[in-house]
Specification:
Blueprint: H1 6-33, H2 38-46, H3 65-78, H4 80-99, H5 102-114, E1 119-122, E2 138-141, E3 145-156, E4 163-169, E5 179-185, E6 191-196, E7 207-218, E8 222-223, H6 229-265, E9 267-268, E10 271-272, H7 277-305, H8 312-341, H9 348-358, H10 365-379
Parallel strand pairs: 1-4
Antiparallel strand pairs: 2-3, 3-7, 4-5, 5-8, 6-7, 9-10
Helix pairs in contact: 1-3, 3-4, 3-6, 4-6, 6-7, 6-8, 6-9, 7-8, 8-9, 8-10
This protein binds flavin-adenine dinucleotide.
């Protein structure tokens, strides 16, 4: 198991305390109301959760990738929705950091570094989900800038986001080589935040459509080069897949703890149910999966921190394993709690709903398996 540094241990303890004392008590309520918890948002701003990865010279904490994983793991342990908000900001931020030129950094990074300015990642479209090369949101060069028309769907943090990293195509026929990224501020005329999805889980984390109607974007807002947007997607997805894995780990850990606590006190046939092999083996299997996920995630995160950027294969392995683990552990936790687990009185049914999203976002687990298998063919 990867050892944490002193700084990372302090961060983990701080997050554990913050989440237990301030976030955990709100999770069930905002899951029902679907309302974004602005008070918690403010708490996250005050504790620097949105600028943790921003370099110190721009006002951020300048912390490493492992630290970002610690933050989302601990948040997900008490609420998947809050963790999703922080993780998806990191997705947009990662694209920004990779693609922004000096002028764009000066324009935005100080604001992001202040800690309340959110960056969004807008790739998915109604007809371009797994097949992201099929983007139809069209950016037409008008000489002095671009005019963009189209729509996006399932965009996390829509409405909260200050700056979207928007992926368009300059020519659908060019597929991957047409993909072009832009920085789009939330107030840009022609941008409309559309329908909010009524989701199964992660309910307090807004997921909406974005519509673009003759939206004009200056050339100065081109992120990276025309036709090179896919490179930004790839690096961002690599990093955020590990964050999704860390979120999954938080959910799985919490579900396991709930199951163990219940198994120790719930008695049937005159004994705690944890004494029955049928239950204890379920708990043991949870631990095996959770510990493997933890070891894998923090190993990959530390590789990124050491500057080994090409972690696409391991990011897919970690995302796939950890999210399948979260789904399995949360489902089994419901089983251990029996009828009580199936009610909203206990938190495990919410964990099961939140876990399901982990198998879908940042590329479904089928897409991860395709990636992994392709790599295997090259490796051996
Ligand atoms: C809560 C939530 C938050 C999200 N946040 C964002 C965000 O912030 N930004 C963003 O851009 N997107 C976001 N998404 C979108 C997400 O990335 C997509 O939903 C995901 O990539 C799958 O695309 P799709 O929904 O169109 O499914 P489809 O691509 O239609 O897939 C449907 C099914 O077919 C399977 N499938 C597709 N192709 C293949 C294949 N070749 N082989 C085998 N199986 C295949 C899939 O695995 C899946 O099971 C979010 C989604 C959710 C649910």
């Amino acid at each position: 198991m990867q050892e944490f540094t002193e700084e990372q241990r302090i961060l983990k303890d701080m997050m554990r305390k913050l989440c237990r004392e301030k976030v955990a008590g709100r999770a069930a309520e905002v899951d029902v109301t679907k309302e974004y918890p602005w008070d918690l948002h403010q708490l996250f701003v005050e504790n620097g959760l949105f600028n943790i990865r921003v370099p110190a010279e721009y006002g951020g904490a300048g912390m490493d990738y492992t630290s970002a994983c610690i933050v989302v793991e601990e948040l997900a342990r008490v609420d998947g929705a809050c963790a999703n908000t922080v993780a998806h900001h990191q997705a947009g931020l990662c694209c920004f950091m990779d693609g922004a030129n000096e002028e764009q950094r000066e324009r935005y990074l100080h604001r992001i570094g202040e800690g309340s300015f959110l960056v969004g990642f807008a790739l998915t479209e109604p007809n371009a989900g797994s097949d992201a090369f099929s983007l139809r949101t069209l950016a037409v060069d008008q000489g002095d800038g671009y005019v963009i028309n189209g729509s996006k769907c399932f965009i996390s943090n829509s409405g909260l986001t200050d700056l979207y990293v928007l992926f368009t195509t300059v020519d659908p026929a060019r597929r991957r080589d047409g993909i072009t990224a832009f920085l789009v501020e939330k107030e840009t005329p022609g941008l409309e935040v559309g329908k909010a999805e009524d989701k199964m889980g992660m309910r307090a984390s807004p997921t909406c459509q974005l519509n673009f109607s003759d939206m004009r974007v200056a050339k100065a807002n081109l992120l990276g080069e025309v036709g090179r947007g896919w490179e930004l997607v790839v690096q961002s997805l690599t990093e955020t897949r590990i964050l999704v894995a860390a979120m999954s780990l938080g959910i799985a850990q919490a579900a396991m703890e709930e199951a163990v606590s219940h198994a120790k006190v719930r008695e049937q046939f005159g004994r705690p149910i944890g004494d029955f092999q049928g239950v204890s083996f379920l708990l043991a299997d949870m631990a095996v999966q959770v510990e493997c996920a933890r070891a894998l995630i923090y190993q990959v995160a530390s590789r990124i921190d050491r500057g080994e950027r090409d972690q696409r294969y391991f990011a897919s392995v970690a995302k796939c394993f950890a999210s399948d683990t979260a789904m399995k552990v949360a489902t089994d936790a419901v089983q251990v709690l029996g009828g009580y687990g199936y009610t909203r009185e206990y938190p495990v049914e919410k964990m099961m709903r939140d876990a399901k999203a982990m198998q879908i976002i940042e590329g479904t687990n089928q897409i991860q398996r395709i990636q992994i298998a392709r790599n295997l063919m090259k490796m051996y």
